[in-house]
Design goal:
Chains A, B: It catalyses: (2R)-2-phosphoglycerate = (2R)-3-phosphoglycerate. Chains A, B: It is an enzyme of class 5 (isomerase). Chains A, B: Belongs to the BPG-independent phosphoglycerate mutase family. A-PGAM subfamily. With 399 residues, chain A is of the alpha/beta class. The first copy, chain A, folds into 2 domains: 234 residues, Alkaline Phosphatase, subunit A (3-Layer(aba) Sandwich), CATH 3.40.720.10; 147 residues, no CATH class. Helices cover 34% and strands 22% of the residues of chain A. In chain A, a hairpin with a 4-residue loop joins strand 4 and strand 5. The two termini of chain A are 25 Å apart. At the A-B interface, strand 3 and helix 3 of A face helix 14 and strand 16 of B.
């Protein structure tokens, strides 16, 4: 029995003055059909009244307690870039940037240095060792992740001014972070010395381009102990997404990851990838991101249009997969109301579709109709348990 | 954005033989309109099946875990009397009482001694020091609060027979309470010696009135560490109530407190105070008590009549406040069924009213209709989180 969780990022909304939301108003015959044939309800990924990020909500929906396994963006970025991390490593998100001779940032993205150039500079940093701490570094264009391995702590401040200006000294946020702060401060000096005179940067300077002569670490977090998805659930799983953040979650949990570019790929192209993976894997997580982006921009009509496009995507998927051995969940990670232009704690609609669910009377997939469903109001942590049970995979507790 | 939580104490009930409750039967056009325009549900202040006091339920509804911050009536009484308490103090509720020469209580309220006389006697007790323990005392007529500060414990029995009879020796309930019990026993002797011969009592005796020659401490509790409401939520808040208990909760949380006397003030007078405070504060908690009192007395018709009067109060309030920037919650702290004449764990109806809530189909505010609402069945701890989210005040967890 296969499981698919299809997450429309930032889908839920609050009603406008007409009492409508983009989802309520959008024409979504496929979603409505899934709702009609499934069991519906509301969900808060983490808990009632908790306003989640996309990272913490996905972890919760996949059955991982974000309060235990989420330690910041750094580890997710590093996992997303495919780095092999160990429990206890401390990982940071980084930018290649340009500093002048006074260590003042003049370009936070080093003129958006190319991936090829960044790969060359990466070699100067990756593999360094400072005071017994091993340094790992991986780039993707101007972005990257820096990992410290050894006797290290994440109780340190960012080495990033977060705008143009002087690179701040990294400070320990507690006694525990003292050594790590020292290592990072030494590292930033070494990086500058190595990169500023590097042939690539000499060449860039000649062409009038900003040198990529520093990296700015931020969002440090300790790599937690995380049981891999396969170990926990015994299913071969994959994660299909368009953002590094969600891919990072997938990689952290040991899911195979596949990228879809929603802006460049047609609905048919996206559908093809998703259908292929559903056929191949026991478990498929799909995240589509654009509805959330429209929400952050406050674009009601755009969000509605994207939802209608996703409905077409779902229609193709549903017409091209075997449904005998499938439980399909359609939901969202969090609401992103147009009026808020950010995530909110309003619950999201959810439907679980599959042959043995107890169908209810809900006929439309939206925030209002699903509130009347028989699934009532669940939390993210319940979802995998319900799905394991429906697919006869979970353990009995007791006799 | 303002928040109002309006609590009708003891509102919920169990159906009588006709299947009706006072709330179901009462004519409440304003409550029904609020329900129709809002999102409805059921609530248990603490948890399903937990039968709360008004103190513990109010704490829970305000987002404070009563299992952590509720340590007995003593601290609430002391806070309610406006005493400045420190974490670790041990506070008791007290009565001035009359004992004979054998330390036998002959009047548990010392003939309801006047506030002025009590204030004079208070000076004899407040400020004493016994074995390094500082004694604080404050009265309001025959009632008062006694606070021990220093190396003290709340693991002691009451120094109150709870009826006429001999004043019991205070006993340690565990090793930890030994010293505190000794201090209290010494204190009661000192108090008797000082008060029995006090001019006020000599004078009272001459007039044939019982002497207020002892205080009887009961309900001792250690003052917990409690984050103030403003620190926790960043809102300037007030609490409007008619009972010392709820005022004590408000003061403990650092809310400004205002008294309404429901028995003496007209609906219009009460409405005026509430409207003024809603205009002035970010957050207003209102508690109206009489429906609970009628429940304790087992008076069905009286409860119904009070509910209808509260509906008029709500009507005036709703017609005289700005509703653009307001989230208004109408609910109760606990059910108080007529058949029980006390609190019960039956959930209470709740409606959250405000421009961006997802309205549901509920058209009446009562125990049965609200059970069908989209808010389903929440706990008190969820309420503030939901309200912080609706007013865009809560933090995002993750990215």
């Amino acid at each position: 029995m296969k499981i698919v969780i299809f997450i429309i990022d930032g889908l839920g909304d609050r009603p406008n003055e007409k009492g409508l939301t983009p989802l309520k108003e959008a024409k979504t015959p496929t979603m409505d059909k899934i709702a009609e044939e499934g069991i519906c309800g509301l969900m808060n990924a983490i808990d009632i009244g908790i306003r989640p990020g996309s990272d913490t909500s996905h972890l919760a929906i996949l059955g991982y307690d974000p309060y235990k396994v989420y330690t910041g963006r750094g580890p997710l970025e590093a996992f997303g870039l495919g780095m092999e991390l160990k429990e206890g490593d401390v990982a940071f998100r980084c930018n290649f940037a340009t500093v002048d001779e006074n260590f003042k940032v003049v370009d936070r993205r080093a003129g958006r240095i190319s991936e090829e150039e960044a790969k060359e500079l990466e070699k100067e940093i990756d593999g360094l060792e400072i005071d017994g701490v091993k340094i790992l570094f991986k780039s993707k264009g101007y972005r990257g992740a820096l990992v410290l391995r050894g006797d290290v702590s994440d109780k340190v401040s960012d080495g990033d001014p977060h705008k143009e200006g002087e690179v701040p000294e990294v400070k320990a946020l507690s006694e525990e972070g003292k050594k790590t702060a020292e290592v990072l401060n030494k590292l930033l000096k070494i990086v500058y010395e190595k990169l500023d005179k590097h042939p690539i940067n000499i060449e860039r300077a000649k062409r009038g381009l900003p040198k990529a002569n520093i990296v700015l670490p931020r969002g440090g977090g300790k790599v937690p102990k995380v049981e891999k998805f396969y170990e926990r659930y015994g299913m071969r799983g994959c994660c299909i997404a368009g953002t590094a953040l969600i891919m990072g979650i997938g990689k952290m949990l040991g899911l195979d990851t596949y990228e879809i570019n929603e802006k460049k790929m047609s609905v048919e192209e996206r559908a093809k990838i998703i259908i292929d993976k559903i056929k191949k894997y026991d478990f498929t997580l799909v995240n589509v991101k654009l509805a959330d982006e429209a929400s952050h921009d406050g674009k009601y009509e755009e969000k509605k249009r994207i939802i209608e496009e996703i409905d077409k995507l779902l229609n193709i998927i549903f017409n091209n997969i075997s449904k005998d051995e499938l439980y399909f969940v359609l939901t969202s990670d969090h609401s992103s109301p147009i009026e808020v232009k950010d995530h909110s704690a309003d619950p999201v609609p959810i439907v679980i579709w599959g042959k043995s669910v107890r169908r209810d009377d809900v006929k439309n997939f939206d925030e209002f109709s699903c509130a009347k469903g028989s699934l009532h109001w669940i939390k993210g942590e319940h979802l995998m348990r319900i799905l394991l049970d429906l697919t006869n995979r979970n353990e009995k507790f007791g006799a």
